[in-house]
Amino acid sequence: MAEKEYKLKDLPGVGTTIAKKLEDAGFTDLMAIAITPPIELAEAIEVSENVARKIINAARRFLKLDFDTALAYEKKRKEIIKITTGSKNLDNLLGGGIETKAITEAFGAYGSGKTQIAHQLSVNVQLPLEEGGANGKAVYIDTEGTFRPERIKQIAIAKGLDAEKTLSNIFVARAFNSDHQILLLDKVKELLAKGEPIKLVVVDSLTSHFRAEYIGRGTLADRQQKLNRYMHLLARLAEQYNLAVYVTNQVMARPDILFGDPTQAIGGHIVGHASTYRLYLRKGKKNSRVAKLIDSPNLPDNETVFFITSYGVSDKEE
Q1: In this predicted structure, what is the pLDDT of residue 73?
Q2: Residue 171's beta-bridge partner residues?
Q3: CA 36/CA 15 separation, integer angstroms
Q4: CA distance 45 to 20
Q5: What is the pLDDT of residue 309?
Q6: Statement to judge: residues 26 and 133 lie in one domain
Q7: What is the extent of the structural domain holding 35?
Q8: Model pTM score
Q9: How many other C-beta atoms can be found within 10 angstroms of the C-beta atom of residue 199?
Q10: H or E stretch covering 263
Q11: What is the CA radius of gyration of the chain?
Q12: What are the start-end ranges of the H helices in the chain?
C-alpha cells in the first residue's frame, strides 16, 4: 500500500492562512519545513517559536526522519547527478563531475580558472543526462561583477547549443553586500517554488563581501558566524532540491609557512567543513591549470591538469 502524501494543511495548527504564509516564504513541502530551525521558521511566517517547533516536529514525524539502513541510504544516493566540467581529467578527479546534493568549493589565485569553470558548468547543466548534464537551469550569484554573457555564448556555440536559449536558462543576480547575498538564496527558493528546474547554484565569489565588510580581528567571530549560516543555507538548498552548489573562494598567503605552498583559502574551518569537495586551482606550465582535490568524503587526494580554451574547459590546449 502506498504511503500517504501529506500536504501543508495536514500539519497540526496549519490552516489556510499559515499555509499561505509558508508557501510565500518558500516552504512548499514538508521537507523544507522539517530541516528549518524553529527560530527561522517563526520569523518567516510570523508565529511564536513554540508554534514553529510543533509544526517542524509534525513535519518530521510525517516524513519519518529517523535512522535508515545504509542499504536504503545507498538507494537514495542513486538520484544524485554528476555534472561534467568539460574536462574528463577534472571529472575523474571529482569522481564523475560536480555532484548534486553537495557543495563543491574551488579556491585559488586570480586567473586560476575558478570563474571559467563556473561559466562552463552554467552551460553544461543544461545538457541531457547522457551528455553529462542535468536537464536543468542555473542560478549565478555574482558578487564581483565577473559574469560574462558573451563567454556563455562562446561556450554554448562550441557545444552546438542555441546561444540565446542557453542564456535564458541562467538566472543571474549581482549581490552588492553579504546581506543581499544571503537574501538571494530566498529568491532561489521562490524560483524553485514556481517550478523552475534549477540544478546548479553558482556563488562567485563566496567570501568577497564577508571579507570586505568584516575587517580586523574584532569582527572575525561575527563574520564567521554569518558565513557559517550562509554555508548551512547552501547545504540545505542542495540537499532539499537535489541541486549542485559550486562556490569560488579567494585566497591569502600565510607568511608563517616557510616551506611548501603558503596559499590558504579564506573562511577557515567554517567553509572547509561545510564544503563537500574542495579544489585548489593554480596556473601550471604552458597555459595549463592544475586542480588539486584536497578534501572529499570518498575520493583520494590527487591532482590533474586541464586547460581554459576559447571553447571552454578542456583536456587539450587550444
Answers
A1: 86
A2: 139
A3: 19
A4: 9
A5: 96
A6: no
A7: 8-63
A8: 0.84
A9: 21
A10: strand 263-265
A11: 20
A12: 16-24, 30-34, 38-45, 49-63, 70-77, 88-93, 114-124, 149-158, 163-168, 178-193, 208-213, 220-241, 268-274
Q: What is the CATH number of the domain that holds 12?
A: 1.10.150.20
Q: Look up residue 136 and give its amino acid.
A: G
Residues 137 and 206 both lie in one domain:
yes
Q: Tell me which amino acid residue 132 is.
A: G
d(CA 282, CA 285): 10
Q: Are residues 38 and 111 in the same domain?
A: no
Q: How many whole angstroms separate alpha carbon 18 and alpha carbon 171? A: 29
pLDDT at 93: 98
| Helices and strands: H and E segment counts in the chain | 13, 13
Give CA separation, 17 vs 47, 274, 291, in Å.
Answer: 12, 35, 51
The low-confidence residues of the chain, meaning pLDDT below 70, are: 1-4, 252-264, 267-268
202 vs 146: CA distance, rounded Å: 12
Q: What are phi and psi of 299, to 5 degrees?
A: -115, 150
